[in-house]
């Protein structure tokens, strides 16, 4: 295995290790604004039946030629490909792309903002809060404009995110931080797997009202497909 993958790609190495050993080592997620979390490696390989209802709804909305952004181990790409769709997967993780190519998925190691394919897509998937690659609220318009450039006329973007305002709420209904000072959905995260440590990166959780407002500005008609426990599934169609 390339040492560069091991040193810089905790997610990719976890994927490659699991495919060989099936031993479930967790991925640890460090955060700047909240407690550390874990990603059980098995969830990255979930079947359609194991997906949450919102993800299953997203799969049913897919049509035409599909781009899976931040595909990771490709649970969505694999299901859609097996269902007969033409799927392209992209991710910045070299280990994830190596695995996806090994299982027959058309996958490319590239940053979403630098991806310039020859043909456009009917559907763009940004699940598991894939819209979070915007990093900051100020960058959400650039993110949607990039998605727009990759879509055919009438194409669709399917994404999910969370309104995380509840994280800052006190028992009396007040908030322990000034929500008007900075957007409350902006975080910094770092992934760790065994002794492999990734870099810190910006990640965005955007509430639906803000997403809807920017989507309209960018020429999308947006609707909320599902909403549960502060988490929602959004459907954006180029108008």
Which secondary structure elements does this structure contain, and how are they paired or packed?
Layout: H1 3-8, H2 10-21, E1 27-31, E2 37-39, H3 53-61, E3 65-69, H4 75-82, E4 86-91, H5 94-102, E5 106-109, E6 121-126, H6 140-150, E7 151-162, E8 186-193, E9 196-197, E10 201-204, H7 208-217, E11 220-228, E12 231-238
Parallel strand pairs: 3-4, 3-6, 4-5, 6-7
Antiparallel strand pairs: 1-2, 1-8, 7-12, 8-9, 8-10, 11-12
What does this structure look like?
This protein has 239 residues and is an alpha/beta fold. It contains seven helices and twelve strands. It has a seven-stranded mixed sheet, with helices on both faces. Strands 1, 2, 8, 9 and 10 form a five-stranded antiparallel sheet that branches. The longest helix has 12 residues, at 10-21.
For the biggest β-sheet, the strand order reads 5-4-3-6-7-12-11
Main beta sheet strand tally, sense and closure:
7 strands, mixed
CATH structural architecture: 3-Layer(aba) Sandwich
Distance between the termini: 46 Å
**What coarse outline follows from CA principal-axis ratios?**
globular
Along the chain, the helix and strand elements come as: HHEEHEHEHEEHEEEEHEE
Residues in helices, as a percent range:
25-40%
Number of domains: 1
Question: CATH homologous superfamily?
Answer: Vaccinia Virus protein VP39
Overall strand count: 12
Low-confidence stretches: none
Mean pLDDT metric: 92
Q: Quickly count the helices.
A: 7
């Amino acid at each position: 295995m390339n040492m560069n993958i091991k040193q810089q790609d905790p997610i990719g190495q976890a994927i490659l290790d699991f495919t060989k050993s099936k031993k479930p080592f967790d991925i640890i997620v460090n955060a700047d604004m909240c407690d550390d979390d874990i990603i059980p490696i098995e969830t990255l390989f979930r079947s359609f039946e194991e997906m949450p209802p919102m993800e299953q709804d997203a799969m049913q909305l897919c049509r035409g030629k599909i781009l899976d952004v931040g595909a990771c181990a490709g649970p969505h790409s694999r299901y859609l490909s097996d269902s007969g769709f033409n799927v392209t997967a992209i991710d910045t993780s070299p280990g994830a792309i190596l695995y996806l190519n090994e299982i027959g998925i058309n996958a490319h190691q590239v940053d979403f903002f630098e991806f310039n394919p020859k043909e456009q897509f009917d559907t763009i998937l940004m699940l598991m809060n894939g819209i979070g690659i915007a990093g900051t609220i100020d960058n959400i318009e650039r993110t949607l404009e990039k998605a727009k450039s990759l879509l055919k006329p009438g194409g669709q973007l399917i994404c999910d995110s969370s309104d995380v305002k509840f994280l800052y709420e006190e028992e009396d209904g007040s908030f322990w931080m000034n929500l008007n000072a900075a957007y409350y959905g902006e975080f910094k995260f770092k992934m760790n797997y065994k002794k492999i440590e990734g870099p810190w990166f910006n990640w965005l959780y955007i509430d639906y009202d803000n997403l809807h407002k920017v989507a309209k500005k960018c020429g999308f008609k947006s609707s909320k497909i599902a909403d549960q426990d502060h988490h929602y599934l959004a459907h954006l169609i180029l108008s």
